[in-house]
DNA sequence: AGAGAACGATTTTGACTTGTAACGATACCT
DNA sequence: AGGTATCGTTACAAGTCAAAATCGTTCTCT
């Protein structure tokens, strides 16, 4: 979905800059993890499972704000690669508890390294103080706007 | 495309915050202009045409980084609503020079108002000084990353 | 205990978006 | 003039996504 330029006001507003730079950063990150054979949604799911292991698919879906039917294919892809396991809950055999395998953990570490490098690249124009300032301002906005920390709102619809 | 959380590092990096907040801002802006019956790509195109009137479709496509075939449907939609005109160039009858109509200009003004309100909403957590600081930092990043001012990089691929 | 409602996961379906490739018209070059 | 390149358009195919139907399991009520 290309091109959502700023309304005519000649000095670009902060919100527009935010979406432009944010989209750029998302694209660059997607390129990086593509080298690992992962898509951004897969990466997000993997991380979500690692953050809260043992949850049912429905619980994860609600947490991420994605329809449960979408999770199936996503989990399938991760499970086929041995990064994630569906464990049948003996108490309630309807639910599939999601867990990250050892392989998945290893990959998460590589993702973390990638994320760090990504961060450095994006913020190359800023010194340490400026980066801290930027982080602080963004945290303020994120909090006020009701964004769940660690969760990335979907590209279309929230 | 939901959920591209941060790699495990517990303090969220600036780049991740950037994509999260940026995506959120893009979604909110999309909601606003939906009230005008416009999609974000349409809005971007309208603004691009207003910024550089008389260009050929191919020139606009290259400027926005979108495939020319995609522009056709986009221009069609705008032309059907009387916001944009295709003018046959008498010198070279292959190209269609794109121009914004008076109606289009009027709508652009409403979009600008919407953009201002949007900006205020997104930055509600920040005072004037903080907003200026944020803008300055983002401009630094955008410049270093080679982003064309006023153009919003596409959601997928640049 | 048994019938039916409720729930979780999955499959199916359809709409939508987007990029690639072929097509026709026009213009440039020799 | 004729061959080639360019512009816009159309046609086609692939991929993404969400809403609805389906299947198995569990809970509840009598």
Topology overview:
The structure is a homodimer of 158-residue chains.
Chain A: H1 14-34, H2 40-51, H3 57-64, H4 68-80, E1 84-88, E2 96-100, H5 102-122, H6 128-144
Antiparallel strand pairs in A: 1-2
Helix pairs in contact in A: 1-5, 2-4, 2-5, 3-4
Chain A binds a DNA duplex (30 and 30 nucleotides) through residues 1, 56-58, 66-72, 92-96, 156-157.
SSE string of chain A, helix = H, strand = E?
HHHHEEHH
Oligomeric state: homodimer
Low-confidence stretches of chain A: 1-5
CATH topology of chain A: Arc Repressor Mutant, subunit A
Q: What is the number of domains of chain A?
A: 1
Distance between the termini of chain A: 16 Å
CATH class of chain A: Mainly Alpha
- CATH architectural type of chain A: Orthogonal Bundle
Rg over CA atoms of chain A: 18 Å
Number of beta-strand segments of chain A: 2
Side-by-side strand order of the widest sheet of chain A = 1-2
**DSSP helical segment count of chain A:** 6
Q: Which key features would you list for this structure?
A:
homodimer; 158 residues; Arc Repressor Mutant, subunit A; two-stranded antiparallel sheet; 2 strands; disordered N terminus; DNA-binding
Structural summary, described in words:
Two copies of one chain form a homodimer. The first copy, chain A, has helices at residues 14-34, 40-51, 57-64, 68-80, 102-122, 128-144, and strands at residues 84-88, 96-100. Chain A is mainly alpha-helical and 158 residues long. Chain A has a two-stranded antiparallel ribbon. Chain A starts with 13 loop residues before the first helix and ends in a 14-residue tail after the last helix. At the A-B interface, helix 1, helix 2, helix 5 and helix 6 of A face helix 1, helix 2, helix 5 and helix 6 of B.
